[in-house]
Design goal:
With about 270 residues, this protein is of the alpha/beta class. It has ten helices and ten strands. It has one domain: Rossmann fold (3-Layer(aba) Sandwich). The chain starts with a strand and ends with a helix. One of its GO terms (molecular function) is ATP binding.
Length: about 270
Amino acid sequence: MLKLEGLSKTYKTGDAALSDVTLTIPKGQIVGLIGPSGAGKSTLIRCINRLVEPSAGKVLLGDVDLARLGKTELRRQRRRIGMIFQEYALVERLTVMENVLSGRLGYVPFWRSFLRRYPGRDVQQAFRLLDRVGLMHQADKRADALSGGQRQRVGIARALAQEPELLLVDEPTASLDPKTSRQIMRLLTEICAERDLPAIVNIHDVPLAQQFMQRIIGLRAGEVVFDGTPRELTENVLTTIYGAEDWDAMRRGDEEQSAAEADARDRMAALAQ
């Protein structure tokens, strides 16, 4: 379980990125984090694993306050948190398998990682994870030869290789087309359900969040302004989070864009035959 108590972040400029955020995320719950640009979504995720240092508050993963740890203990505790990035953060010259095995770097001696001699158990686990994300046949391919969706699947497998207790996911679909976005979100939610793994997903696509998230937290100007189920995310609530907008028109536009992109793919496939 993750508990945030009074989590705040103020930069040296005096800008408050987060203000007194208090949340509890139980085991197995998948939470969508939504809000306009600059609302503090990425800062919140990065404060949890201390890629950004909080100014105040507690970050409790189980009974350990991550916000109070020194560098050595923080490195050890970070193994408990899997991070999935928007831009994948793969080593492109390495193979898919080597990128997945890099999730074990916090567990193996330096010489093993330097020589790429991982224990047999880690290699077997990596093959199982690649099979789970549908990339077993790509194990020996270089990461820079993969599509965006395939790269995100590698990122998911790498995070799972850590055997984490929490997943932090930063805009996993921002660079993907609508169909691939749904496939990635479906994969993430299935994996979290299988492992009873809690996850916080920073996601800019509101309809996608409503489709796949169990709980949605809305941030605005660094403060939590909504915390509820997807069904409770009404137009009035969306206006509170984002400001005034014709939300029905936006949803229709998303649907029309998805249909147009699907039609274009079908035409390209027909031409290729």
